[in-house]
Amino acid sequence: MAAARRVLRWALAATAALAAALALDNGLARTPPMGWLHWERFLCGTDCAADPRRCVSERLFVEMADVMVAEGWRDAGYEFVCIDDCWMAPTRDERGRLQADPKRFPSGIRRLADYVHSRGLKLGIYSDVGNKTCAGFPGSYNHYDLDAQTFASWGVDLLKFDGCNSGTLELLAEGYRRMSLALNKTGRSIVYSCEWPFYLRPLQQPNYTEIKQYCNHWRNFFDVYDSWSSIKSILDWTALHQDSIVKIAGPGGWNDPDMLVIGNFGLSWDQAVTQMAMWAIMAAPLFMSNDLRRISPEAKWLLQNKETIAINQDPLGKQGYQITKDKNFELWERPLAGQAYAVAVLNQQEIGGPQNFTFPLTFLGNGLACNPACSVRQILPASRDWGVYSWVSSLSVEVNPTGTVLLKVVAL
Ligand code: GLA
């Protein structure tokens, strides 16, 4: 058995090394990037006279950066403050460069980046592969090099590159490739966040090996909304496509199931726990879209949960997957460094109360996660040691409707 385990460990290490070798070679996103992104919560608010606290403006990003430092978000690992769509002026400047809306960003992006850096954070910005962004602002088509240089000269650290209005599939692919090369050419370290496979999918199977050579993370599916049905649809999609997407994720390149919406209006406590637990299992980039200036202590506790973040950021860099689905229950696992597994038990039933799911520990890690014994610790919804189990034992887990119990199993 020990020999079999050694072989499996060797195979896992070899796969990880191969995945790393094929990733976009910019040295970034060795673990899933973490930060804050304005879109889901603040959308395209441009009327600062009517709504100064919520419009897309430098004030919003300065205030978010301040609170990220003051309230422990930066220390928890959330380092990027990201601007999404709608930051631009409606036209380029006289030299053809993108420019920020002068009313909403009177100091300009360069000054905003300086400020964000002075707080020990990084700045993300947004553009689009086509000639217009999804919200109708100027896109980067035909300007990839110039825009990459502009972003680098401003001190930008991440680019979210959307795929609206790109014309043909060839132009979409070429645009994503060219922007990646243009960013690399600037010499500045800029994380490259893509939506390439999402825009490709309705018409063509994405070539993930290629996408990983150009992007640090990539969206596959629709925008997240502040609702349980949205979270559920993302999880269902991911489980359905896991055979093609899980193996490709690893240091330097990640599947992006979109923003964390915890701390907003649409999710119950159990559903928020599910999003946090499952985004950790999926090795997802963790970009919160919420109002950190006003957030409940419970949401803050969950989003800053150290053990869950440690699972998300695990150095082995392997994405988790669904092992089995049994009526309303889903069992997922994620291999971790140090002969450990993160395990999630999700209860999809939306009627009734808490229910128990019982499964043999041999279900985990192809029978090796608890061999010959293991320690089990519950991480969410609250941390608690469950003690030591032998490989012939079963676990019985009580889960609330639409909730998840997240465990860490360490082989002894
Ligand atoms: C698309 C993206 C979203 C957001 C909007 C902005 O829908 O998927 O994440 O960036 O565009 O317009």
Automatic annotation (TrEMBL):
GO terms for biological process: glycoside catabolic process; glycosphingolipid catabolic process; oligosaccharide metabolic process. GO terms for cellular component: extracellular region; lysosome; membrane. CDD domains: GH27. One of its GO terms (molecular function) is alpha-galactosidase activity. Keywords: Disulfide bond, Glycoprotein, Glycosidase, Hydrolase, Lipid metabolism, Lysosome, Signal. InterPro entries: Aldolase_TIM, GH, Glyco_hydro_27, Glyco_hydro_27/36_CS, Glyco_hydro_b, Melibiase/NAGA_C. It holds the Pfam family Melibiase_2. It is found in: Lysosome. Gene3D superfamilies: Aldolase class I, Golgi alpha-mannosidase II. Its EC number is 3.2.1.-. Its main location: other. Residues 1-23 form the signal peptide. Residues 317-403 form the Alpha galactosidase A C-terminal domain. It catalyses: Hydrolysis of terminal, non-reducing alpha-D-galactose residues in alpha-D-galactosides, including galactose oligosaccharides, galactomannans and galactolipids; a globoside Gb3Cer + H2O = a beta-D-galactosyl-(1->4)-beta-D-glucosyl-(1<->1)-ceramide + D-galactose; a globoside Gb3Cer (d18:1(4E)) + H2O = a beta-D-Gal-(1->4)-beta-D-Glc-(1<->1)-Cer(d18:1(4E)) + D-galactose. Catalyzes the hydrolysis of glycosphingolipids and participates in their degradation in the lysosome. Homodimer. Belongs to the glycosyl hydrolase 27 family. This is Alpha-galactosidase. It comes from Aquila chrysaetos chrysaetos.
